[in-house]
Automatic annotation (TrEMBL):
InterPro entries referenced in this protein's UniProt entry, alphabetically: DUF1697 (IPR012545)
Record-annotated membrane-spanning stretches: none
Name this polypeptide is given: DUF1697 domain-containing protein
Gene3D superfamilies in the cross-refs: SP0830-like domains
């Protein structure tokens, strides 16, 4: 009897930004090559879906990161969640059902490890972003346009503060990622 396949979502950090090009077909092929196929992707910002059984998550993440660095020539930090964990993090978001105003955005920061609430509060000096909650390895960010300027990227600062690596996805995009992952 084979072990139950667990659906995963891999969130790749900083792909298809600048010279960090990752073609989604090649990404799927690399994941398939690790025995994680058939892998699927959603949009070109680095969201991949696959199922596997009986693998230690830390080892699996290390295998994925090593394979992708070899394939693409640069490190690709990967936040690895089960689909159930992504659904839970989405459901726990403190944003409520109200859509953001025109000057604001809601985002989930998916990270590589648990987040210590004692590191809070975390916020931009201009009031352009703040962490409004935590759930396991996920932080919830509220972005604002201040004086006509969009928010600075808080991810490097938050990675340092929490001692993890992470990548953000807008709240409405996470809903679409979940729907796409469920189709598999």
């Amino acid at each position: 009897m084979s072990a139950e396949q667990i659906p995963y979502v891999a969130f790749l950090r900083a792909v298809n930004v600048g010279r960090r090009k990752v073609e989604m077909a090649r990404l799927r092929a690399e994941l398939d090559g690790l025995g994680l196929g058939p892998a699927r992707t959603y949009i070109a910002s680095g969201n991949a879906f696959f199922a596997t059984a009986g693998k230690d998550r830390a080892k699996l993440r290390a295998e994925i990161e090593q394979r992708l660095e070899q394939a693409f020539g640069f490190a690709i930090p990967t936040a690895l969640y089960t689909l159930a964990e992504v659904e839970e993090a989405y459901a726990a978001a403190p944003f409520g059902a109200k859509p953001p105003e025109a000057h604001e955005r809601f985002s989930l920061l998916f990270t590589t490890g648990p987040l210590d609430p004692q590191v809070l509060p975390q916020a931009g000096k201009r009031g352009d972003w703040e962490v409004v909650g935590l759930h396991g390895a996920t932080a919830y960010l509220h972005y604002r346009v201040v004086d006509g300027k969009g928010p600075a990227n808080p991810v490097p600062l938050l990675e340092k503060a929490f001692g993890v690596q992470g990548t953000g996805r807008f709240h409405h995009t996470v809903e679409k990622i979940i729907a796409s992952a469920r189709k598999g």
